[in-house]
Design goal:
The structure is a homodimer of 498-residue chains.
Chain A lengths: L23 H21 L13 H4 L12 H12 L21 H13 L10 H18 L6 E5 L2 H14 L6 H4 L9 E6 L4 H9 L7 E4 L9 H13 L3 E8 L11 H11 L2 E5 L24 E4 L1 H4 L7 E5 L2 H8 L30 H35 L4 E3 L7 E6 L6 H17 L6 E5 L2 E7 L7 H22 L1
Parallel strand pairs in A: 2-3, 2-4, 4-5, 5-6
Antiparallel strand pairs in A: 1-7, 6-7, 8-9, 9-11, 10-11
Helix pairs in contact in A: 4-13, 5-13, 6-8, 6-12, 9-10, 13-15, 14-15
Chain lengths: 498, 498
């Protein structure tokens, strides 16, 4: 061991700053301070501006150019959170965060993650941590009951929906068994080109997955949507038949329940019929809206989902579990296994009957204990607690839509089946481009005040405001404040663009 | 809101068990208890058996069949950790964990993850949390200095080495610009088949990445190794030339510094020469051994790594950062961006000069604040603190190798350049298969006692024991105990197989 460093006077404990990596009592003391810091942060996050006032490079400039040669005391770590990090954060915890989709660091979620990182297990094999695998699959089976989905689906957690979509489409590709793609790849002589289908409103991760899988952007055909932004099944059918006639091999359809821009719901039952007829893999992306299946009154939106070959929803979106935590289900674990199983010599283990080695069902080998935070959130809220909050978010969205609908300076841009409302400011004197610029400006003005953050999207080529309610801490007062700011900034945004 | 539930007598606070999701003071109180629980667990983990005594299904049977309708108190969550989870864990924190590669839940790593999950930012764009992007890239640039690697490499964190390898090979594929693979996919008419090269000792994630990318198992040619398990560069050259002549298009070589079975080091400089000559992308996988580059006396093993096109090391392996945290570097961020950038309407943002949107450099859109735990570990230990521990692990491995080498019941199976030793028990009367079985049995016997967990691998077709030192808490006494158990179980393992 190297000799002790005489400069270590800055340490706050006699044993030096390193000791708390070793000594559970020092961990305890530092841990209490970290929890206190987090509690104070959570208490004041609603008073901070949602968006930070930093320019690119500001945060990095606040950090030392070189790594520290000697250990630093815990005080320095905590004070740098206040000095450098918090002023550079976009506060996703803020109750006025209405951009993208809201997510929540709930209490049990944060503490569940604390415990998971302390266990620091790698559940690649059942044997390498049985509880990591079994709690994960068990809690995900609870969720099938909570969402009224088929109880026999094979469950696993993945980090993000992007990876879930990739895994789903890799399985769909593998299901083309005659092509031996796992062995020979896609470019073997005589192979047909594969094509998947999703609506033009589907998430960008679908296109990214197809690029990654080697099918290219040409491997995705984007299907137009109807006036409610739902996939047009007639157009889908025509595309599949046309492509088949042209020598493509259609292999998968991605249907979305709750698209990202408008939260529209594709007609999954009809798509499932078509998939059965044409032997296409049906993946349902319910990353955001999947949580709404907790509510019996929302189940109609999920009709047909029970016929999916794979299904994904994100507990880290609207179910109050900290990021990252994505629930992936499939009716065909054997196909996933054919796509992904590889057992190297250093991971060979005596086969344990009825044990599941989750490394065989996806891309990543390493697997942390993500299920604890999910388990703790479900248990702490109870299913009724989750339901009541999700229901309240949907009620607030309906209220907001009502306010917007009754003010003729604004118009609703799309149906709002869940907790997200798309709308536009209107300035009758302005041409389309001017109105688009005014809506951009309106979002910027509203978000510039501090307590609210709204983002925009484009629908049918037009700039559209989007207010998504999903944070546990968002209440009626926050939605009302956003609406007041929208109203009060409307005139200035129009003048600026005019 | 739903009416309060009259059954809520089980709650430990007057406001009911749900209140602590809302109220920072309840979070504080529960957080202190969670920290105390973790501190107690860390204090006793060395006394638990490393491997749990559970059969498949035992953990799941300890959980309620149905999800709870009503919220449960925090007591129930904590007591289930003791009742169901801890008895079902493989304790990666145990100082006698010598299987696979050791990993560590260090104090600052655990608390860094607590803070990250409380911030719960999604750093997909710079704008969606500037500090998340900037702390990540800044700390990864510190590491380039710590490891003496090119300071201008573009850094990002990925979750696992599996994803890092996938991203590297996706970029290498995209670098075949004439093929327009992003647009057309791999099966466009007239496309050559692509092939990558790695040694037969390379990690299974290389093969999995090539399967995922649509190149198939045929897209990987495994190159034989020399007597020290290092890639044979003459064989590599021959393979590349042969394949080119046969119409394949060679596009990438994966060199490993610290292979998984023996921690052998491929001759990276010579491989880099060949890659330059043949215009192949060089990816260096230093997932485990990368940490050893902290030590000047180990730098010779990294000669040539500065010429890599992409490079990966795992702070979550030997650098005491909780899983998952993988550092990925590339000299060609423009190629990654060409491979992965897709900006959907709902994520369009005014371009901020000099801001990096990390979603454009990989598969996943979602990105949590993984850098905090890494930053806190480096700052708490200081670079000298990390060096001293890594150096000590290497010293312990040399000691163990010396003990083994001086006992003629055992033999060393491979060079041990870092902290992992491969060896075999010998039983001169036994045939090869018998000796293999005896070595399996020996690993099982040693691991059956409780305080030590060893795994096996296969080298040149022979079963080999493998003792990997990498946990922060592993000290000489633990290595010595493992060695004592190996010696005392040697005879019984031989009898059993004989």
């Amino acid at each position: 061991m190297e000799s002790p460093n005489p400069d270590r006077g800055a340490s706050e404990s006699p044993a030096g700053p390193e000791s708390w990596n070793w000594d559970p009592e020092s961990f305890r003391a530092h841990g209490h301070r970290a929890v206190d810091w987090v509690a104070d942060y959570l208490a004041r996050v609603g008073e901070l501006p949602v968006l930070p006032a930093v320019r690119p490079g500001d945060v990095a400039r606040g950090l030392p150019e070189h790594p520290p040669e000697h250990g630093e005391p815990f005080d320095a770590l905590l004070s740098d959170l206040d000095r450098v990090v918090v002023p550079g954060l976009t506060h996703w915890n803020h109750p006025g965060f209405f951009a993208y989709f809201g997510i929540t660091a709930s209490g049990p979620g944060i503490l569940g993650e604390l415990v998971a990182s302390a266990f620091n297990t790698n559940g690649m094999l059942w044997k390498t941590s049985p509880a990591t695998t079994e709690v994960e699959q068990h809690v995900l089976r609870w969720m099938l009951e909570m969402f009224d989905l088929p109880r026999d689906w094979f469950p696993q957690l993945v980090d993000t929906a992007s990876i879930g979509t990739l895994v789903a489409l890799a399985a769909a590709r593998e299901a083309q068994a005659d092509l031996e793609i796992r062995k020979e790849g896609l470019a073997a002589p005589g192979h047909p080109r594969l094509r998947a289908y999703a609506s033009e409103q589907a998430h960008s991760s679908v296109e990214k997955a197809l690029i990654t899988l080697g099918l290219g952007q040409a491997g995705l055909r984007k299907i137009p949507t109807d006036e409610s932004f739902r996939m047009d099944v007639r157009a889908l059918r025509q595309a599949v038949e046309e492509d088949r006639a042209d020598g493509w091999r259609p292999f998968a359809v991605i249907a979305t329940v709750g698209t990202t821009s408008t939260t529209s719901v594709d007609p999954v039952s009809e798509i499932a019929d078509l998939c059965r007829e044409h032997r296409l893999w049906l993946h349902v992306d319910a990353a955001y809206a999947g949580t709404a299946a907790l509510l019996p009154e929302m189940r109609a939106h999920f009709a047909g989902c029970d016929r999916a070959d794979s299904y994904l929803m994100n507990p880290h979106k609207w179910m109050f579990v900290p990021i990252d935590c994505s629930a992936f289900y499939t009716a065909h674990p054997d196909v996933l296994q054919r796509a992904f199983q590889l057992v190297p010599d250093y991971l060979r283990t005596e086969p344990a009957a009825h044990a599941t080695d989750l490394m065989n069902y996806g891309v990543q080998l390493g697997r942390r204990f993500r299920a604890i935070k999910l388990w703790w959130v479900i248990r702490t809220f109870g299913v009724e607690g989750l339901r009541s909050r999700v229901r309240e978010h949907c009620r607030l969205a309906r209220e907001l839509a009502r306010w917007i609908g009754s003010d003729d300076r604004f118009e609703i841009s799309a149906p709002a089946p869940f907790s997200t409302v798309c709308f536009r400011g209107r300035w009758p004197g302005l041409p389309d481009e001017g109105e688009d610029a005014a809506n951009e400006d309106l979002a910027r003005r509203v978000s510039g005040h501090g307590p609210v953050f709204l983002a925009t999207t484009r629908l049918r080529g037009r700039t559209t405001l989007r207010l998504a309610i999903g944070n546990l801490r968002s209440e009626e007062s926050h939605v009302r404040l956003a609406w007041e700011l929208l109203q009060s900034e409307h005139a200035a945004a129009g003048e600026n663009a005019g």
